[in-house]
Amino acid sequence: MPLKFRWTIAFLVVTLSRCFADDDHEMEEFLKREHSLSKPYQGVGSSSSSHWELMGDAMVTTDQVRLTPDMQSRQGAIWSRIPCHLTDWEMQVHFKIHGQGKKNLNGDGLAIWYTKERMQKGPVFGNKDNFTGLGVFVDTYPNEEKHIERIFPFVLAMVGNGSISYDHERDGRPTELGGCNAMVRNLKHDSFLFIRYVRRRLTVMIDIDGQHEWRDCLDLPGVRLPQGYYFGASAITGDLSDNHDIISMKLYQLTVLRSKKEEEEEEEDVITIPSVDNMELIRLGQSDEGMSGIAIFFTVLFSMVGCIFLIVIGLVVYSHWNENRRKRFY
């Protein structure tokens, strides 16, 4: 079979498969060019007619938007000028993180944003703290050394309501919605991040293995994000550094078929403040999952000892009871 024909078949399969969403709801997608960033980056600039605006140390080259160079104490960002009013959407980010630093001697990572605020410098991967909206972080440096079970780089998501702070010392664990490890540094092939928001369900996937296959990272229902926020990307370096590059950010409008009842419910329940349903349960589950191997070992060990102790006590009590019972018959 000719190579060109095989690629055509593969493209058709992928295209057809993406016409259907989860829960058997039919879905179509349309590229929104006014919210997308790609080569040759003609819509990037400081003029009012530009769709995207640079901030800090970010700069445009022919091949990428470099948020930070591989130099210390730099931060940069690129933000959309146009607010997004889509109900359901999907963002595909083509990015690259590379530098001269060896493992764990590089930092700090980049973030993809959908927030109420824009163009504000800060400590959270180059953006302001206490943000309002969604942040998806590609964290390349571990600040908390105690959690040895987490492998970095690590991708995680967070929803902020304007008063929740990102905890740097704990790598964002107290407020994260979930995540996955992703070895994205110094790859020879392309790396991609996939963020989908459909029917108040947030899905994050990655493609970093060069196999053109998405790998699950986060899938969470009950995420409430208002419309009219801005997309952006930012990065920061400190004593350690990396090149943080954005090759493209492509936003797709997703048209999902809804029943009349679902439409009426969504019209009545208008989202004004970002939030996550059952956030306390999510944190509790993460706390359980965050136990180290040693803690788990001792928990199991003491549980077994406790069970054995109770069994021995039970046997002794039963033995005494049985002996007294027999005496009553003599």
UniProtKB/TrEMBL annotation:
Classification lineage: Eukaryota, Metazoa, Chordata, Craniata, Vertebrata
Keywords recorded for this protein, A-Z: Disulfide bond, Glycoprotein, Golgi apparatus, Lectin, Membrane, Metal-binding, Signal, Transmembrane, Transmembrane helix
GO cellular component: COPII-coated ER to Golgi transport vesicle; endoplasmic reticulum membrane; endoplasmic reticulum-Golgi intermediate compartment; Golgi membrane
TM region(s), chain numbering: 294-318
Pfam families with a match to the protein in the record: Lectin_leg-like (PF03388)
Residues in the signal sequence: 1-21
The protein's name: L-type lectin-like domain-containing protein
L-type lectin-like domain location: 29-254
Membrane-topology descriptor: Single-pass type I membrane protein; Single-pass membrane protein
Gene3D superfamilies associated with the record: 2.60.120.200
SUPFAM superfamilies: Concanavalin A-like lectins/glucanases
Gene coding for it: lman2la
Superkingdom: Eukaryota
GO biological process, one term: endoplasmic reticulum to Golgi vesicle-mediated transport
Molecular functions (GO terms): D-mannose binding; metal ion binding
Compartments where located: Endomembrane system; Golgi apparatus membrane
